[in-house]
Design goal:
Elements lengths: L1 E6 L7 H17 L3 E5 L9 H7 L5 E5 L8 E5 L4 E8 L3 E8 L4 E9 L4 H15 L5 E7 L6 H9 L2 E3 L2 E2 L5 E2 L6 E2 L2 E6 L2 H4 L3 E5 L10 E5 L13 H5 L3 H9 L8 H47 L4 H29 L13 H7 L5 H9 L14 H6 L1 H18 L19 H15 L14 H4 L13 H18 L4 H10 L22 H6 L1 H7 L8 E4 L19 H4 L1 H6 L7 H4 E4 L4 E4 L10 H14 L10 E4 L9 H10 L16 H11 L6 H6 L14
Parallel strand pairs: 1-2, 7-8, 10-14
Antiparallel strand pairs: 1-15, 2-4, 3-4, 5-6, 6-7, 8-13, 9-13, 11-12, 14-15, 16-19, 17-18
Helix pairs in contact: 7-8, 8-9, 8-13, 16-24
Length: 720
């Protein structure tokens, strides 16, 4: 048995209704119901070809109640091979069909309801339903849009008729107003108690909506699959001496599939299962060892109370205590790790073919491994139970399959059904189109939901991502992490000038290759538009919109001055000197002069001496420009080192880190929320609960009412 009920809010022929019909057709094709109930069809006549459109079979039977004007209308569709009708009863607000469900051999009455808006109409609906139910002793199923929450009349009807309201999984509410301000639970499945004797495993779920303000609800027999049960792989398992052989054995097991991400997923499953088996056995052994050692230590203590212990006995006592401490520590570390699991991406110049091939190569193993190591070992790429310590420790075992999975995703841009998207975060940069979906997975996971089961979000996700000092939970968005990883390519370009790929980039795009922190970015770099390198360059514009100008954060620190162009590089001030002093630049005899060619720092006080070479001596007003230039240069600092180096200002070390940029992005958001108060002595879940309570973001009655959710009363039911 599988029944789908939906307030479809009109079955017309305009463009929106066509989209709605196509969506509902796809829903039926996916779920394959054998009984459909629609409310508010707004139809006077129902075209029979829609039956085949919905069910894929023109043999399905149906009955309908015409709409009154542009409101109302009911439709019921069923498979005659499963349900044989005896008679149909029609009332103002519902259609009741009595028949025989062949698989159980019992008479069953199915009632499709569309409740009225006014109170008098609702009273009459409950009265009519009771009259119909008094006619026969049968199995009863009532469903549809009751247009009412569980208030007095509704509760009295359920109680008087000995009915059961089946809990709905998947979502808290079945209707969301078009403006998103009001949430209601108006759609339900209500059954008689004897139905459960025939279908003991009935369950109901709210499905995702589209093109209508109501969500479809589905009643079916059997358990709903909400995804695999999470098995957490703890650090102590990975560090154990037996872990290597267990992972090697599990990874070598044969798996089915030809898509590389599927193969990687199945191998991870094998590792989980083998580790779980090993843990179940070793945990029993560990408990026994702890009990035995505890008894030994107690015996030593009792013995020491009545007599002096020899040196050998003292050594044995200390050895037993150390063993006990270590084993209890191993056990405690797993508990601590479990408790802390909260939450913590060509028209240009030609080059040699060999270099071009090198430039277009896919991600290397080394690059991916560096991305993994740059994150904390206790950080997990996703909720699949494996943290990054697993990937680092067993890299030699899993690297081949992991790289195949990453290459598959990068080439196809798709994730196979059933695969966790977590391995994507191991790629140093994620395609922008994927970030939104991944952020949605994180958001659902935080609120306890999934793709199959949605939960209400009580706090804006953007606020949750902020730093503690900005009133958030210091989680950070994947978008910011991706921007920080892209910016890291700027740092690599600036700090690794001898790298082959940098020489290739410069040979194609020129000296500064578009990095505005070196010199202003020309708008006519040939062949740059639409390339991978242009995406890296343009991260600057995205960051500027977020309030972070990285061109001012990367600063050239002058050492010897032999590696910095005097006129063309940004090394003093916020622009190049050729733009600040264009008249002097025109008089320069060597326009590619280095800083060391024009400026020397002498003496202990770092005094500046100038060495100018003019094609024509400056005169008149240009002398004023020269004086301004020398005044600026006189305050320039020299590091005293042998080389010129780039530094990242936000870090004291001067070395760029993705963490520092992420913190800048998270703190640059303008917010008036008070800083989050933290206490490391309480569990994180308790801390989050207190954080939500401080913002009135708990599901208490007053807050539910404020969000537009229908309640019979906002008063506490426990109060007098």
């Amino acid at each position: 048995m599988k029944i789908i009920s939906l307030n479809i809010r009109g079955l017309g022929l305009d463009d929106k209704d066509k989209l709605k019909l196509n969506w509902f057709k796809r829903l039926c094709n996916r779920e394959k119901p054998n009984f459909l109930a629609l409310q508010e069809t707004k139809c006077q006549n129902f075209p029979e070809f829609w039956i085949e459109k919905f069910c894929g079979n023109s043999d399905y039977k149906y009955c309908c109640k015409k709409a009154k004007g542009n409101s109302g209308g009911l439709l019921m569709v069923w498979d005659p091979n499963l349900f044989v009708t005896n008679y149909i009863v029609e009332r103002e607000t519902f259609i009741a069909i009595k028949g025989n469900w062949k698989s159980v051999g019992e008479e069953l009455v199915l009632i499709n309801v569309y409740g009225p808006q006014n109170d008098e109409g609702k009273k009459q609906m409950w009265k009519d339903l009771k009259e119909v139910m008094n006619y026969d002793e049968a199995l009863w199923m009532i469903f549809g849009d009751f247009n009412e929450v569980r208030a007095k009349w509704f509760n009295d009807f359920i109680k008087d008729c000995n009915l059961l309201d089946i809990p709905l999984g998947g979502r808290l509410y079945t209707r969301i107003s078009d403006n998103g301000h009001k949430f209601s639970k108006l759609d339900r499945f209500i059954i008689s108690e004897n139905v459960l004797q025939k279908w003991p495993n009935l369950n109901a779920v709210v499905l995702d909506k589209k093109y209508t303000d109501h969500c479809p609800i589905m009643l079916q027999e059997g358990n709903i699959y909400f995804g695999p049960k999470l098995i957490k792989v703890f650090d102590e398992w990975i560090k154990h001496k037996d872990a290597q052989s267990i992972v090697e054995k599990a990874w070598s097991m044969e798996v089915k599939g030809w898509r590389h991400d599927v193969i990687f997923r199945e191998k991870l499953k094998n590792v989980k299962m083998e580790l779980k088996k090993w843990y179940s056995t070793s945990q029993c052994k560990l408990k026994g060892e702890i009990e035995e050692l505890t008894k030994k230590v107690i015996d030593w203590e009792l013995k020491a109370e009545v007599s002096n212990l020899s040196d050998i006995d003292l050594l044995a006592w200390n050895t037993d205590r150390d063993k006990l401490f270590q084993k209890e520590k191993n056990q405690t570390e797993m508990l601590k790790q479990k408790a802390s699991l909260l939450l913590e991406n060509w028209d240009g110049p030609r080059i040699e073919k060999a270099l071009a091939d090198k430039l277009e190569e896919e991600f290397s193993e080394l690059e991916t491994l560096e991305a993994i190591k740059s994150c904390g070992k206790n950080k997990a790429p996703g909720p699949d139970g494996f943290n990054l310590l697993f990937y680092i420790k067993f890299w030699d075992i899993i690297k081949v399959d992991l790289m195949k999975a990453i290459t598959w995703f990068w080439n196809s841009g798709s994730i196979s059904n059933g695969c966790n998207a977590s391995f994507i975060t191991l790629i140093p940069k994620a395609p922008v189109g994927v970030l939104k979906d991944l952020e949605g997975i994180r958001r659902d996971f935080f609120w306890g939901g999934s793709n199959e089961q949605k939960k209400m979000a009580w706090v804006n996700w953007n606020q949750i991502l902020l730093l503690y000092d900005s009133g958030g939970l210091n989680i950070s968005s994947l978008k910011n992490k991706n921007l920080a990883l892209l910016t890291k390519w700027w740092w690599k370009f600036l700090s690794n000038k001898e790298a082959l790929w940098i020489k290739v980039i410069k040979s194609i795009y020129g000296y500064n290759s578009g990095l505005e922190c070196i010199s202003p970015n020309p708008t006519n770099i040939k062949g740059l538009t639409g390339t991978t390198w242009s995406n890296i360059i343009n991260v600057k514009h995205t960051l500027t919109k977020l309030g972070c100008d990285i061109t001012n954060e990367f600063v050239k620190l002058i050492g010897s001055g032999t590696e910095t162009l005097f006129w063309h590089d940004i090394w003093i001030g916020e622009t190049v000197l050729k733009q600040a002093f264009p008249k002097l630049f025109r008089l320069e005899s060597n326009k590619l002069a280095m800083v060391s060619d024009r400026v020397q720092w002498t003496g202990v006080e770092g005094r500046v001496q100038f060495s100018w070479q003019w094609s024509t001596l400056p005169r008149w007003r240009i002398l004023f420009d020269l004086q301004q230039l020398e005044n600026r240069l006189s305050v320039a600092k020299c590091s005293g080192k042998n080389v010129d180096v780039w530094v990242w200002k936000p870090c004291c070390s001067g070395i760029y880190t993705t963490k520092s940029l992420i913190e800048m992005l998270n703190s640059s958001v303008d917010t008036h929320v008070k800083p989050t108060i933290r206490n490391n002595l309480i569990p994180q879940k308790v801390g989050i609960l207190m954080w939500r309570a401080s913002q009135n973001k708990l599901p208490v009655r007053s807050e539910l009412d404020r969000r537009g959710i229908d309640l019979d009363s906002v008063r506490c039911p426990m109060s007098l």
